[in-house]
């Protein structure tokens, strides 16, 4: 069966999603919604830096939702720190219109049932009205943390704790965005938006609850902590200079506490030099799931691309975590899904590179 897909808001990651849809034997790209007026009417392939695809982007939501597409790949961009509800109404409308949704936007929707407020109830209602399914994947939150941990837990008899890591080298990012976000190059970690109290909890709480439900426990309290390292000497990164004595690496943890113990933990290690945080013994960019129990299991997953690939391999992985899920999500009964509900969804593309 071929599933018809609308790409909603093609941006940096969606470039990889569009290439993924085009290369997937069970998927067909039939439309795209764009946010900016200057993208209206342009070929989606051209917008994504690919060959023309003969599919024109539009800003007309009604026209797109009136088509017979099966699924929307929802990749609207957002600022991690601001209120994320802006595009929620669009999401509900798409689900009510009879289109399934695979989602990357607002990654905390990886487990909506754990969100405070009416988000889960509203999504479930929209799915039932439209006869549709909704699932958020991504890398973190998403497959890199929760998915990897669920895989390790499959082999375990007794679980004391689950510790999930993201380890990234951020030195290649151009522009000030990531540098400012983590506070790299600053003297005081109070300048780092991600380290403001509550921000990391906001971002990772649903991942913790997903894992807690998976192992049959209930989190009593979420506790966050962080540490930073300082540059011993000045060095250059793509976005500028890191002066000596300023922040050159950030490590933060968000811990789901049960009976005073950290039973489920998400940890981020954001560095600028491969040699920093040597105690982790983690080379490259990737994810680690560490289950302590019987047996204890550690899974390390590094993400890289062939040397001739100019894109970001983590963006490819993020995009494919939703694109490859489309057939499963379309075939599922109506409702809100998570990684706990979906069988594996491997790639079927044998190698056409876009
Ligand atoms: N879970 C994960 O691991 C993971 C990993 C990567 C990304 N993500 C998420 O995936 C999403 C896409 O990331 P990205 O890097 O591709 O984002 P991006 O390039 O910054 O933006 C994606 C699209 O969003 C559109 N957009 C911007 N503001 C909008 C608004 N107010 N309303 C509607 N559309 C708007 C942009 O359109 P214009 O350019 O026309 O304004 C662009 O087409 C983000 O929400 C990000 O948080 C998740």
Automatic annotation (TrEMBL):
This is Dihydrodipicolinate reductase. The lineage of its organism: Bacteria, Bacillati, Actinomycetota, Actinomycetes, Frankiales. Residues 206-343 form the 2,4-diaminopentanoate dehydrogenase C-terminal domain. It comes from the Bacteria. InterPro entries: DAP_DH_C (IPR045760), NAD(P)-bd_dom_sf (IPR036291). It comes from Frankia nepalensis. Pfam families: DAP_DH_C (PF19328). SUPFAM superfamilies: NAD(P)-binding Rossmann-fold domains (SSF51735).
